Amino acid sequence: MKNLFWSIFNANSEDELGEIIMKRTDLKKGENWFPYGADDKLDRSNFSTFDGQQPNAVPALIEKITNSIDSLLLKECRLRGVNPKSKEAPKSMEEAVEKYFGIKNGDFSEVGRKERRNIAENIQLIATGDSRYPDLIIYDKGEGQHPDEFKNTFLSLRKNNKTDIRFVQGKYNQGSTGAVIFCGKYRYQLIASKLDDRLNPEKDNPFGFTLVRRHPLTEEQEEEYGSSWYEYFLIHGKIPRFKIDTLDLGLWNRVFKAGSIVKLYSYQLPRGTYSNIERDLWRNLNQYLYKPALPFIVYDTRIPNKTPTTPVLGNKTRIDIDDRDKKEKTKFHSFTNQQIGEVTIHSTIFKSDVKQSEFIRDKAVIFTLNGQVHGSLLRRFISKDLGLSMLKDNMLIHIDCTKIRTSFRQDLFMANRYNMKEGVSFQTLLDNIVNIIKSDEEYREINQNKKNMIYGDAKKDEEILKFIIESVPFDKELIKILRHNGDLSFLLSSKKKEKNGKTVEKLEREEKPLISRRFPSVFRIDLKDNAQGKKVKSIPLNGKGNINFETDVEDEYLFRPKEPGDFKIQVLGIKYNDATGGTDKGKPKKVEDVFDVTVAGPTDDSIRVTFEPKSDISVGDEIEISAKLSSPSGDLESIFYIRIVDPKKPGKTVKEKKQDKPSLPIPIQVYKGDVRWKEFGWTENDIVKIITLNELGSNMIEAIAVNMDSYAMTRYISTKRLGTENKIKFAKQQYFTAVYLHSLFLYSIVDKYSKTEDNFECDVDDFISKVFQYYSTFLLYANTSDILLSSFDDD
């Protein structure tokens, strides 16, 4: 059996493994292969389970990693004599990591680099073989499995192996099948394991292995069956096995003694991830595992003369610790309600020069459970739904759903942990997120400040545009459309006027100097005492109420990786009105039973809490509440009361304001070295950026910025040998005008098209920017500049 294992393990591709299978009688025999996840050899119904998992090879691979993390935590639990399903077992992954690895709050970002790496080496992702389709090995030093248990663990489907275990990620008993469909043409996967000796002291404890594949259909079976099935290898009805003390499997800084090994042959990694997994795949793994419960390493054996191992810590640790200098701003919100449970929103705004692919890629909003990304939204959510068009390329919103209610989670996430169910629960969660972020003024201020910096003094560029439009013989119908008659509903003047009628092009905000502490010493509620000396906030039964707390602690206090604080809200009692319960104090309830609560901050020395009364309380009820902010010197507490008052009466209908007539978007010329060049993250290949006014709930264009130092422009000047200042100046002005006007009208056309096509998934402004990287050269040579330039004297 040992020789058979080594011949399978040492195969460097699926083709090599296929040759081995054809040469060995035991591997060729059909009776030695059994349907995966079945109790009966005739049960061949597993194809849909395998092929119904993740549609992408990276999140499918993540499932293997999360299984390894689960295995390490389960081992530590069982070594302490605790049944993982018992009440004595940890109630969350964070609690398990803190209890078994001594890491507070389960946040290993607090651990030094040396100890962090030592922990990470317990799980390894190793690339061998081919440069395009590498073999991937996943090793973990977890509990391992006895060969007799393979059928009930590794090779089972839809069994409740982990359903009742609260501190592991795996629940559905099918996620690890997702990676198999990306294993070459034949779907070969080796599974090998040995149970930790300490968990099996009284029983023979061999090393077991099996090979998984998609059943190769014969010509007769091609006609008979509608689909193939997946199967695994047995000898005489048993998992092959042999005794070992250790095995040298080529691990980094480890020899195999116990645990598990999975090898995926000729794995089909997506483009941009396979050439160097400790750099390219590493970046993707960090994005899908935002905050893994335990770190692991990636090891590329294909890179010679290099130390090719890198720990995967997750983007949260990278953002908060290792790359914190790339952040511009971090904001935190949380809300609790009875239907959803508790949700935390962690927003990071990166500096403009940070490459989008480094942390965000196409996932600007991520939804996580236990740190693993279970769903995401594209960047258009930030620009369109939140109205923050200037932040969509530099903002990452993390929605932590770990503490949501089980019933809500089941309605929200698919079993493949990749897609979300876009039903009522999804929309309910999204509505809460949009309302919270839109109600925070600071987001809009940051967005507007970026616009103000970009616009600068646009008057000069407007004059140039006006001169060109008046000088060049444009078609009269075009001029008519630009003025007012055409279908340019997406245009809107971005100018705002002061009382004296002057144009405001830059908003300035005076900010008070802040002195924030690492730990709070101040926590005061912003409510005045009433006649009875009580702090009372009146909230209408059908409304909301905001309560602000002044503090002096830094913004990241509640969510920072090292020494985070805690903010708690507790109901102390309820005094019901005469009609519903008299004056006796009611029994304390959970705050989410009485209110939907949203917490924003700390931000700029303030925490804001929004209370929205639930339907089971009445007008006249008075709720006593305690708010506590933790501190090493003792919790800081504020006690106050919320009195429920009569519902708000419907207000008068506000007449819709008459909109300004459409006018041209602000024209902006951007040169290399300009701060705006850096803000846009441009290279010489970029041509144009369209800035939309999404704050109004539409796709109106507010400004158009043109790259005046693009390759297209500099090549044109060189090719045409424009040797005089006048010729170069006029060529640039006409290039500027052509790009401006063409992008304006192309935006209108594509915007209309995108509203009628469900499959159009690109932001219109992004699409126009990409088109112009190729279209701009045509504009330069197709316009009238050659004729007009000849009219200029060389003098």
Question: Can you tell me about this structure?
Answer:
With about 800 residues, the protein is an alpha+beta fold. The chain folds into four domains: about 1-310, no CATH class; about 325-450, 2-Layer Sandwich (Ribosomal Protein S5, domain 2), CATH 3.30.230; about 460-495 and about 660-790; about 525-645, Immunoglobulin-like. Strands 1, 2, 3, 4, 5, 6, 7, 8, 9 and 10 form a ten-stranded mixed β-sheet that branches. It has a nine-stranded mixed β-sheet with strand order 14-13-15-12-11-23-24-20-18. Strands 19-26-25-21-22 form a five-stranded mixed β-sheet, with no helix packed on it. About 40% of the residues are buried.
Task: Give a quick rundown of the structure.
The protein has 795 residues and is α+β, with helices and mostly antiparallel strands. The chain has four domains: 2-312, no CATH class; 323-449, Ribosomal Protein S5, domain 2; 458-493 and 662-789; 523-645, Immunoglobulins (Immunoglobulin-like, Sandwich).
Protein topology:
Elements: H1 2-9, H2 14-23, H3 25-28, E1 33-35, H4 47-51, H5 57-79, H6 93-101, H7 113-120, E2 123-129, E3 134-140, E4 189-194, E5 207-214, H8 219-224, E6 230-233, E7 241-242, E8 259-264, H9 277-288, E9 296-300, E10 309-312, H10 315-322, E11 327-337, E12 341-350, H11 356-359, E13 365-369, E14 372-377, H12 380-385, E15 395-400, H13 406-412, H14 424-438, H15 441-455, H16 459-471, H17 476-485, E16 496-497, E17 503-504, E18 523-525, E19 536-540, E20 545-551, E21 567-575, E22 585-586, H18 591-594, E23 595-600, E24 606-613, E25 622-629, E26 636-645, E27 666-670, H19 675-680, E28 688-692, E29 701-707, H20 711-719, H21 725-756, H22 764-782, H23 785-789
Parallel strand pairs: 2-9, 13-15, 19-26, 27-29
Antiparallel strand pairs: 1-6, 2-3, 3-8, 4-5, 4-8, 5-6, 5-7, 9-10, 11-12, 11-23, 12-15, 13-14, 16-17, 18-20, 20-24, 21-22, 21-25, 23-24, 25-26, 28-29
Helix pairs in contact: 16-21, 21-22
